[in-house]
Amino acid sequence: MVVDDSPVTLLILKKYLEEEYEVINAQNANDAIQKMKEHKPDLFILDIMMPGMDGFALCEMIKKREKDVFIPIIIISALEDNESKLKGLEAGADEFITKPVNQFELNMRVKTLLKIKDLYDKLNAREKLFKAVFNNINSGITLLDISGNRLEVNNKAVDLLGYSKEDMKTGTGIFSYTVDDEQEGKVFQELASGEINEHVSEQLFSRKDGSQFWVRHSLSSINDNTGTPEMIVSMFTDITETKTAQRHLANYTALLKKLIEAIPMPMYVKDVDGVFIECNERFCKLIGLKREEIIGNKQYSFFDKEAIKKIKKAEMELLKNGGHKEFELQLKDASGKTKAFAFYKETFTTGDDIAGLICIMVDITTKNLLEEQLRKANDILREQAIRDGLTGLYNHKKSLEMLEAEIKRAKRYNNVLSVLMLDIDYFKKVNDQYGHQTGDDVLVIVSEIIQGNIRETDIAGRYGGEEFLIIFPHTNFEEAFNTAKRINKALKEHEFKEGFKLTISGGLSEWQGENAAQLIHKADKLLYKAKNGGRDRIEPAGKT
């Protein structure tokens, strides 16, 4: 937005800028205030001398109104005295240009300020992300000054300790919920004095209701630019149930070293030739080099060969064509620890030319680990939902579902299908004589014998108790009958460790258009016929 009471000046400035920007003109402060609500400008160019509210007052009003974001303001004036420039800067102006305005100078300053605004906006987004992480991380966190005043408490600390956030922030020290107050006080003083930088312990904490729980407690100091402690970070994680399997909580000193850089995101900037022109402390720590060893160089040696290859390719394409790229890589940090990072790279320009690129690296190691653990847990749950817990065969519900699916497939493709119902003979005697543990062992061994004598394409399930259902896809009566006899023979030849042997009875039926319930019923009737016929036999029923 350009604000000037001179129509000629407005016309000239708009002509200078409109090729690259949407320019909104206003002839006085009131006009500008009205248009601000509708257009929300990213940058203001203000004249000093205007009727009503002058440029200084308007500048100060804009800065106060937009205090939560960075809105760059350029003041232009025919006045060249230092007093006017100083007054403009005191009002919040970011640049001061003297009339007549040079087009090149104006464009360069606008571009520079908009780049700075973009970086500020990204920083604000990172700060919001930090606050979200701060309040959702699975550890209680308290920030204290070196006098012990609590500056901030996250939601998890409130949940773990039972105090309200207001109660905790109005108190002093970390001692109201630690069991060993004296030891904690000594450690705190050592941190506040700079004698130590960090202290980690496992100890009991007390909740507001008096109950206690084990925590892994980390106290870290955050130093100012002179190395003097200015803040203490207290972080504690409930390890009551997992004390023996606790995880090290690392990098929290760096995470909270400066609130403005609280989110651990390594960042670097390169020029169009691929030379490092800027980087943050997180990036220095990641690769194990000092800033002065990085800036002005084209170093890649701190990454492994595969990572270098992908990074070089992405950066060459970006510096040639411009735009944005995102990808993920496994990298080793300076300590040799492998981590997963998401790379976000974007070019910036000077005029119409690409001037370089910005890269932000986000550590996604924990996210990937949690996703993998969740995937494995889901796989286990899915398997448990369809398997019998004792034998490992398909359970009753899954067996019926698979039979229905095979019947549909047989109908669609005109395939043959056979079903075998098996029941262990005199199984109750085993339980009565040897106990239920032996009975369970028998069921497991019978299941193994069944699995060992059928094909991979056949389906075996525990139908219930000592009864088993075997589905033979693409298998006629004769082939299934041979398999059934082989299972029966293998079981009769097996001697259990208690010294007894068992037999099995079965009913075998070939599918002839029945639904699942009808087919099982037919096989079940044949099974009882085998039982009534003396047991230790397979009662067949082929095609009728």
What descriptors fit this protein?
20 strands, Beta-Lactamase, 544 residues, alpha+beta, Rossmann fold, 24% strand, five-stranded antiparallel beta sheet, single chain, five-stranded parallel beta sheet, 4 domains, 18 helices
Lateral strand order in the biggest sheet: 2-1-3-4-5
The coarse silhouette is elongated
Low-confidence stretches: 244-263
The portion of residues forming beta strands comes to: 15-25%
Examine the secondary-structure arrangement and name the CATH architecture of the largest domain: 2-Layer Sandwich
Distance linking N and C termini: 91 Å
CATH topology of the largest domain: Alpha-Beta Plaits
Counting structural domains, the number is 4
- Overall pLDDT: 85
List the helices and strands and how they pair.
Elements (H helix, E strand, L loop, with lengths): L1 E2 L3 H11 L7 E2 L2 H11 L4 E4 L7 H11 L7 E5 L4 H9 L4 E4 L4 H34 L3 E5 L5 E4 L1 H7 L3 H6 L10 H12 L5 E9 L5 E12 L5 E10 L13 H4 L11 E5 L4 E4 L1 H7 L3 H4 L10 H17 L2 E9 L5 E13 L2 E11 L1 H22 L9 H18 L3 E8 L2 H8 L1 H17 L6 E6 L2 E7 L3 H17 L10 E7 L5 H17 L5 E4 L3
Parallel strand pairs: 1-2, 1-3, 3-4, 4-5, 19-20
Antiparallel strand pairs: 6-7, 6-10, 8-9, 9-10, 11-12, 11-15, 13-14, 14-15, 16-18, 16-19, 17-18
